DNA sequence: ATTTACCCGACTATTTTAGTAGGTTATTCC
DNA sequence: GGAATAACCTACTAAAATAGTCGGGTAAAT
C-alpha cells in the first residue's frame, strides 16, 4: 500500500476543483497557485484523472478542467485509485502468491486491511468534503492569499512593464 | 503512509514467533526458512522489534527470540510502528504544515484515515491471528515444507560429506 | 574450544517519488 | 489571420526509500 504526495495532491486538486466548480472551468495554474503544487506535476496527475473520466477538459483561453460528474458522485477512493495504482495493502495484489507462489501467513490480514481502507475512502465524496467546516476555513484562507498573490503579480508586472 | 514488505515481514515474523512460542526460543534461521525472508534482513527488523520491547533475545546455541509478553497483548499496529516509522497517512506527520507552514485542504481527511487504520490494526492481537483458521492452514503447510527442507538438507549434507 | 546464534554498522542495486524541461495542439479574442 | 492561452504529451532527472548484502563482532552452551 502506498499513499504518498501523489495521491494526496490528486485529492487536494480535485477538492479545489469541487470548491470552484460553480465558476466554470478551473485552470491548472489556478490550482497550482492556490494549493502550492507544481504545474507540470499537476498536468501529469490530471492526465490520469482524465483517463479515469473523473474530469473533462476545456482547451483554449478561459479553459481548464471540470468535474465530469456531480460532487456527490466522486469518491476519494476513486481519485487515489486513478493516480496511485490502488489502495492495496497486500504484497501480492490479491494473487495470494507472495511467498514463492504460495499464500503467506499474513495475506488475509492485509486483505482485511485493504477492504477497511477502501470502504472508508469510498464512502467520502467530494460533496461531503466541501461541506466540512474545517475544509471551508482552509479554502477561505487560500482564496484570500491567492487574491493577494494576484495583486502582487499585477504590481510586479507594472514595475517590470 | 507506507506499508511495504518491511512492515509485512515484521508482522509475518512475529506471527511465526507466536505460532511456535510454546517450543522455547525461535531462531531467526527457522523463521527465515519457514517464511522465506532473508536472514540478514530479519536481523535488522528484530533489532528494531527488540528496541521496542516486543521481543527478548536468548543468545547462544538453542537460543533465539521470544515474545516479550503474552500473544494477547501484542497488536499488529505496535509491530508496524516498531519497524516502519508509523501508519500515518498525513504528509505533515500531524503538524498541520504541509503547505508551506500552513494546513493543506485535505489535512483532516488524512488524519481521519490514519485514525481509522490505526484503530483497525490496534485491535488485532497476535493471539487473534493465531486462532484464525486461514492462518492455521498456511502455518501447517509451512511446517510440512520446512520439515521436508530439513530432510533435504540432511541428504545434501550426507552426499557432500 | 568450538559451535551456535544474536548483534552491529556500513555498503549497494533497484525502484519510486517528485519534479523539470521542452515541445505540440486546440481554442478564443483582437 | 495572429497572438495569447491553456490543455496535452514525451522524455529526462535528482533525491529518497526499499530491500537487501557483507563482514565482522559478542554472549552462551556443549
Ligand atoms: S500478501 Fe498475499 S500472499 Fe502474501
Ligand atoms: S497533510 Fe497535514 S497539512 Fe497537509
UniProtKB/TrEMBL annotation, chains A, B:
It holds the Pfam family Rrf2. It comes from the Bacteria. InterPro entries: TF_HTH_IscR, Tscrpt_reg_Rrf2, WH-like_DNA-bd_sf, WH_DNA-bd_sf. Gene3D superfamilies: Winged helix-like DNA-binding domain superfamily/Winged helix DNA-binding domain (1.10.10.10). Keywords: DNA-binding. The keyword DNA-binding applies. PROSITE patterns: HTH_RRF2_2. Signal peptide: none annotated. NCBIfam families: IscR, rrf2_super. This is Fe-S cluster assembly transcriptional regulator IscR. It comes from Marinomonas sargassi. The lineage of its organism: Bacteria, Pseudomonadati, Pseudomonadota, Gammaproteobacteria, Oceanospirillales.
Amino acid at each position: 500500500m502506498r499513499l504518498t504526495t501523489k495521491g494526496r495532491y490528486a485529492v487536494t486538486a480535485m477538492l479545489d476543483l469541487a470548491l470552484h466548480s460553480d465558476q466554470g472551468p478551473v485552470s491548472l495554474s489556478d490550482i497550482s497557485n492556490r494549493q502550492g503544487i507544481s504545474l507540470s506535476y499537476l498536468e501529469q496527475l490530471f492526465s490520469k484523472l482524465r483517463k479515469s473520466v473523473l474530469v473533462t477538459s476545456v482547451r483554449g483561453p478561459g479553459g481548464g478542467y471540470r468535474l465530469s460528474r456531480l460532487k456527490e458522485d466522486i469518491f476519494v477512493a476513486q481519485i487515489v485509485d486513478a493516480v496511485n495504482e490502488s489502495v492495496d495493502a497486500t504484497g501480492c495484489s490479491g494473487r495470494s502468491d507472495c511467498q514463492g507462489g504460495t499464500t503467506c501467513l499474513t495475506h488475509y490480514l492485509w486483505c482485511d486491511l485493504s477492504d477497511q481502507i477502501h470502504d472508508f475512502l469510498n464512502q467520502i465524496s467530494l460533496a461531503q468534503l466541501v461541506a466540512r467546516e474545517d475544509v471551508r476555513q482552509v479554502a477561505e484562507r487560500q482564496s484570500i492569499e491567492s487574491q493577494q498573490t494576484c495583486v502582487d503579480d499585477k504590481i510586479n508586472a507594472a514595475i517590470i512593464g
